[in-house]
Fold this protein.
Amino acid sequence: MEVVIVGSPEEAGRLAGGAITSLLANKPGAVLGVATGSSPLPVYADLGRRRQAGELSFAAARAFLLDEYVGLPAGHPQSYRAFIASELEARVDFAPGAVQGPDVADDSEGIPAACERYDADIAAAGGVDIQVLGIGTDGHIGFNEPGSSLGSRTRLKTLTARTRADNARFFAAPEEVPRHVVTQGIGTILDARHIVLLAFGSAKAPAVAAAVEGPVTAMVPASALQLHRHVTVVVDHPAAADLQLAGYYRETYTAKPSWQGL
Ligand code: GLP
Protein backbone atom coordinates (compact mmCIF):
# COMPACT_ATOMS: atom_id res chain seq x y z
CA MET A 1 0.00 0.00 0.00
CA GLU A 2 1.46 3.36 -0.99
CA VAL A 3 0.48 6.40 1.09
CA VAL A 4 0.99 9.81 -0.51
CA ILE A 5 0.53 12.83 1.74
CA VAL A 6 -0.28 15.92 -0.30
CA GLY A 7 -0.68 19.63 0.48
CA SER A 8 -4.23 20.01 -0.79
CA PRO A 9 -7.17 18.15 -2.35
CA GLU A 10 -6.30 19.90 -5.65
CA GLU A 11 -2.84 18.31 -5.59
CA ALA A 12 -4.47 14.94 -4.94
CA GLY A 13 -6.78 15.58 -7.90
CA ARG A 14 -3.80 16.26 -10.16
CA LEU A 15 -2.03 13.08 -9.02
CA ALA A 16 -5.00 10.80 -9.51
CA GLY A 17 -5.95 12.62 -12.73
CA GLY A 18 -2.39 12.04 -13.98
CA ALA A 19 -2.64 8.30 -13.27
CA ILE A 20 -5.95 8.10 -15.17
CA THR A 21 -4.46 10.10 -18.06
CA SER A 22 -1.52 7.68 -18.34
CA LEU A 23 -3.91 4.73 -18.20
CA LEU A 24 -6.03 6.14 -21.05
CA ALA A 25 -2.93 6.92 -23.13
CA ASN A 26 -1.86 3.26 -22.89
CA LYS A 27 -5.34 1.78 -23.00
CA PRO A 28 -8.00 4.03 -24.59
CA GLY A 29 -10.71 1.45 -23.85
CA ALA A 30 -9.88 1.41 -20.13
CA VAL A 31 -12.52 0.85 -17.46
CA LEU A 32 -12.73 3.38 -14.65
CA GLY A 33 -14.42 2.75 -11.31
CA VAL A 34 -16.08 5.94 -10.12
CA ALA A 35 -17.07 6.97 -6.62
CA THR A 36 -19.34 9.71 -5.35
CA GLY A 37 -19.07 11.92 -2.27
CA SER A 38 -16.93 15.02 -2.02
CA SER A 39 -13.52 13.30 -1.99
CA PRO A 40 -13.33 12.41 -5.72
CA LEU A 41 -14.44 15.90 -6.84
CA PRO A 42 -10.89 17.28 -7.29
CA VAL A 43 -10.11 14.28 -9.51
CA TYR A 44 -13.16 14.88 -11.70
CA ALA A 45 -12.30 18.60 -11.92
CA ASP A 46 -8.75 17.69 -12.96
CA LEU A 47 -10.01 15.25 -15.61
CA GLY A 48 -12.32 17.98 -16.97
CA ARG A 49 -9.39 20.39 -17.25
CA ARG A 50 -7.26 17.78 -18.98
CA ARG A 51 -10.10 17.00 -21.39
CA GLN A 52 -10.41 20.72 -22.26
CA ALA A 53 -6.66 20.86 -22.85
CA GLY A 54 -6.96 17.85 -25.17
CA GLU A 55 -4.73 15.72 -22.93
CA LEU A 56 -7.09 12.78 -22.69
CA SER A 57 -10.18 11.20 -24.17
CA PHE A 58 -12.76 8.89 -22.62
CA ALA A 59 -14.38 8.26 -26.03
CA ALA A 60 -13.51 4.55 -25.98
CA ALA A 61 -13.53 4.14 -22.20
CA ARG A 62 -16.19 2.79 -19.85
CA ALA A 63 -17.01 3.52 -16.23
CA PHE A 64 -18.88 1.74 -13.46
CA LEU A 65 -20.30 3.37 -10.34
CA LEU A 66 -19.54 1.97 -6.92
CA ASP A 67 -22.96 2.30 -5.41
CA GLU A 68 -26.44 3.80 -5.57
CA TYR A 69 -29.25 4.78 -3.24
CA VAL A 70 -32.41 2.67 -3.40
CA GLY A 71 -35.78 4.39 -3.42
CA LEU A 72 -34.96 7.81 -4.88
CA PRO A 73 -37.08 8.84 -7.86
CA ALA A 74 -35.21 8.42 -11.19
CA GLY A 75 -33.14 11.51 -11.98
CA HIS A 76 -33.16 12.71 -8.33
CA PRO A 77 -30.19 15.11 -8.05
CA GLN A 78 -28.74 13.12 -5.13
CA SER A 79 -28.91 9.81 -6.96
CA TYR A 80 -25.33 8.74 -7.58
CA ARG A 81 -26.08 8.25 -11.26
CA ALA A 82 -27.10 11.94 -11.50
CA PHE A 83 -24.06 12.99 -9.43
CA ILE A 84 -21.61 11.24 -11.78
CA ALA A 85 -23.47 12.63 -14.81
CA SER A 86 -23.00 16.21 -13.64
CA GLU A 87 -19.60 15.96 -11.91
CA LEU A 88 -17.78 13.74 -14.42
CA GLU A 89 -19.67 12.89 -17.60
CA ALA A 90 -20.58 16.52 -18.28
CA ARG A 91 -16.88 17.44 -18.22
CA VAL A 92 -15.44 14.69 -20.41
CA ASP A 93 -16.37 12.76 -23.54
CA PHE A 94 -17.72 9.35 -22.59
CA ALA A 95 -19.80 7.77 -25.37
CA PRO A 96 -23.53 7.47 -24.64
CA GLY A 97 -24.18 4.43 -22.45
CA ALA A 98 -20.50 4.04 -21.46
CA VAL A 99 -21.14 4.88 -17.82
CA GLN A 100 -23.15 2.33 -15.88
CA GLY A 101 -24.48 2.18 -12.32
CA PRO A 102 -26.20 -0.55 -10.35
CA ASP A 103 -29.81 -0.98 -11.49
CA VAL A 104 -31.87 -0.24 -8.40
CA ALA A 105 -35.23 0.05 -10.14
CA ASP A 106 -37.70 -2.43 -8.74
CA ASP A 107 -38.01 -4.36 -12.00
CA SER A 108 -39.50 -7.80 -12.47
CA GLU A 109 -36.20 -9.54 -11.79
CA GLY A 110 -35.64 -7.72 -8.53
CA ILE A 111 -32.55 -6.26 -6.94
CA PRO A 112 -30.57 -9.47 -6.23
CA ALA A 113 -30.63 -10.44 -9.92
CA ALA A 114 -29.71 -6.89 -10.94
CA CYS A 115 -26.74 -7.02 -8.54
CA GLU A 116 -25.48 -10.27 -10.05
CA ARG A 117 -25.88 -8.79 -13.51
CA TYR A 118 -23.88 -5.73 -12.46
CA ASP A 119 -20.89 -7.80 -11.31
CA ALA A 120 -21.16 -9.80 -14.55
CA ASP A 121 -21.23 -6.57 -16.61
CA ILE A 122 -18.08 -5.30 -14.90
CA ALA A 123 -16.33 -8.60 -15.57
CA ALA A 124 -17.55 -8.66 -19.20
CA ALA A 125 -16.11 -5.16 -19.72
CA GLY A 126 -12.72 -6.57 -18.71
CA GLY A 127 -12.74 -5.48 -15.05
CA VAL A 128 -11.92 -2.11 -13.54
CA ASP A 129 -8.47 -0.69 -14.34
CA ILE A 130 -8.47 2.18 -11.84
CA GLN A 131 -11.02 2.41 -9.04
CA VAL A 132 -11.40 5.85 -7.45
CA LEU A 133 -12.51 5.48 -3.83
CA GLY A 134 -13.44 7.63 -0.87
CA ILE A 135 -13.78 6.46 2.71
CA GLY A 136 -16.55 7.00 5.25
CA THR A 137 -15.79 8.26 8.76
CA ASP A 138 -16.60 4.71 9.96
CA GLY A 139 -14.15 3.19 7.48
CA HIS A 140 -16.71 2.17 4.86
CA ILE A 141 -15.87 1.94 1.17
CA GLY A 142 -18.66 2.20 -1.38
CA PHE A 143 -21.52 1.61 1.01
CA ASN A 144 -19.93 -1.42 2.67
CA GLU A 145 -20.65 -0.58 6.27
CA PRO A 146 -18.72 -2.08 9.23
CA GLY A 147 -19.51 -5.79 9.47
CA SER A 148 -19.58 -6.25 5.68
CA SER A 149 -18.06 -9.49 4.48
CA LEU A 150 -14.59 -8.88 3.11
CA GLY A 151 -15.49 -11.19 0.21
CA SER A 152 -18.85 -9.56 -0.53
CA ARG A 153 -20.15 -8.89 -4.04
CA THR A 154 -22.63 -6.26 -5.24
CA ARG A 155 -25.73 -6.42 -3.06
CA LEU A 156 -28.35 -4.51 -1.06
CA LYS A 157 -27.13 -2.92 2.20
CA THR A 158 -28.76 -0.90 4.98
CA LEU A 159 -26.97 2.31 5.94
CA THR A 160 -25.87 2.96 9.50
CA ALA A 161 -27.29 5.95 11.36
CA ARG A 162 -23.79 7.52 11.21
CA THR A 163 -23.55 7.31 7.42
CA ARG A 164 -27.08 8.65 7.03
CA ALA A 165 -26.14 11.57 9.30
CA ASP A 166 -22.86 12.15 7.36
CA ASN A 167 -24.76 12.23 4.06
CA ALA A 168 -27.71 14.30 5.32
CA ARG A 169 -25.90 17.48 4.20
CA PHE A 170 -26.78 16.62 0.60
CA PHE A 171 -30.52 16.34 1.29
CA ALA A 172 -33.16 18.89 2.32
CA ALA A 173 -33.87 16.98 5.54
CA PRO A 174 -32.03 14.11 7.34
CA GLU A 175 -35.01 11.76 7.04
CA GLU A 176 -34.80 12.07 3.23
CA VAL A 177 -31.53 10.08 3.18
CA PRO A 178 -32.51 6.60 1.95
CA ARG A 179 -32.00 3.65 4.31
CA HIS A 180 -31.12 1.19 1.58
CA VAL A 181 -28.44 1.17 -1.06
CA VAL A 182 -26.89 -1.16 -3.60
CA THR A 183 -23.11 -1.24 -3.41
CA GLN A 184 -20.31 -3.12 -5.06
CA GLY A 185 -19.04 -5.58 -2.47
CA ILE A 186 -15.61 -5.44 -0.91
CA GLY A 187 -14.67 -8.45 -3.03
CA THR A 188 -15.93 -6.63 -6.15
CA ILE A 189 -13.85 -3.56 -5.29
CA LEU A 190 -10.76 -5.69 -4.65
CA ASP A 191 -11.04 -7.08 -8.20
CA ALA A 192 -9.97 -3.68 -9.59
CA ARG A 193 -6.39 -3.65 -10.86
CA HIS A 194 -5.42 -0.36 -9.19
CA ILE A 195 -7.30 1.36 -6.36
CA VAL A 196 -6.81 5.04 -5.54
CA LEU A 197 -8.36 6.01 -2.21
CA LEU A 198 -8.73 9.73 -1.45
CA ALA A 199 -9.40 11.28 1.96
CA PHE A 200 -9.25 14.87 3.10
CA GLY A 201 -9.82 16.65 6.40
CA SER A 202 -9.36 15.75 10.05
CA ALA A 203 -12.73 13.94 10.30
CA LYS A 204 -11.21 11.17 8.14
CA ALA A 205 -7.95 10.79 10.14
CA PRO A 206 -9.11 7.93 12.43
CA ALA A 207 -10.66 5.98 9.54
CA VAL A 208 -7.54 6.42 7.38
CA ALA A 209 -5.23 5.23 10.18
CA ALA A 210 -7.45 2.23 10.96
CA ALA A 211 -7.66 1.31 7.27
CA VAL A 212 -3.94 1.64 6.52
CA GLU A 213 -2.26 0.67 9.78
CA GLY A 214 -4.89 -1.21 11.80
CA PRO A 215 -5.78 -4.88 11.65
CA VAL A 216 -7.67 -6.23 8.64
CA THR A 217 -11.19 -6.48 9.98
CA ALA A 218 -14.78 -6.34 8.79
CA MET A 219 -15.26 -3.60 11.40
CA VAL A 220 -13.16 -1.33 9.15
CA PRO A 221 -14.14 -2.31 5.60
CA ALA A 222 -11.36 -0.19 4.04
CA SER A 223 -8.75 -2.27 5.91
CA ALA A 224 -9.45 -5.02 3.33
CA LEU A 225 -7.44 -2.87 0.91
CA GLN A 226 -4.32 -4.07 2.74
CA LEU A 227 -4.87 -7.39 0.94
CA HIS A 228 -4.72 -5.77 -2.51
CA ARG A 229 -1.50 -5.64 -4.49
CA HIS A 230 -1.84 -2.09 -5.87
CA VAL A 231 -3.47 0.53 -3.65
CA THR A 232 -2.54 4.21 -3.53
CA VAL A 233 -3.90 6.19 -0.58
CA VAL A 234 -3.79 9.95 -1.26
CA VAL A 235 -4.49 12.08 1.81
CA ASP A 236 -3.97 15.66 2.88
CA HIS A 237 -2.11 16.55 6.10
CA PRO A 238 -5.22 16.64 8.34
CA ALA A 239 -6.42 13.23 7.10
CA ALA A 240 -2.88 11.85 7.66
CA ALA A 241 -2.69 13.13 11.24
CA ASP A 242 -3.21 9.74 12.94
CA LEU A 243 -0.80 7.74 10.75
CA GLN A 244 2.08 6.33 12.80
CA LEU A 245 4.35 5.97 9.80
CA ALA A 246 3.59 9.36 8.21
CA GLY A 247 7.29 10.32 8.24
CA TYR A 248 8.23 7.12 6.45
CA TYR A 249 5.49 7.60 3.82
CA ARG A 250 6.79 11.11 3.11
CA GLU A 251 10.40 9.87 2.76
CA THR A 252 9.32 7.02 0.52
CA TYR A 253 7.36 9.26 -1.80
CA THR A 254 10.14 11.87 -2.00
CA ALA A 255 12.67 9.16 -2.88
CA LYS A 256 10.40 7.40 -5.36
CA PRO A 257 12.00 6.56 -8.71
CA SER A 258 10.30 8.65 -11.41
CA TRP A 259 9.64 5.59 -13.61
CA GLN A 260 7.36 4.07 -10.98
CA GLY A 261 4.29 6.30 -11.43
CA LEU A 262 1.46 5.93 -8.95
C1 GLP B 1 -20.67 7.88 0.72
C2 GLP B 1 -20.24 7.11 -0.52
C3 GLP B 1 -18.78 6.66 -0.41
C4 GLP B 1 -17.93 7.84 0.00
C5 GLP B 1 -18.38 8.38 1.33
C6 GLP B 1 -17.53 9.54 1.83
O1 GLP B 1 -20.97 7.05 1.79
N1 GLP B 1 -21.04 5.96 -0.73
O2 GLP B 1 -18.37 6.14 -1.66
O3 GLP B 1 -16.58 7.43 0.08
O4 GLP B 1 -19.71 8.83 1.17
O5 GLP B 1 -17.95 10.71 1.25
P1 GLP B 1 -17.12 12.07 1.24
O6 GLP B 1 -16.04 11.86 0.24
O7 GLP B 1 -18.09 13.10 0.84
O8 GLP B 1 -16.59 12.24 2.62
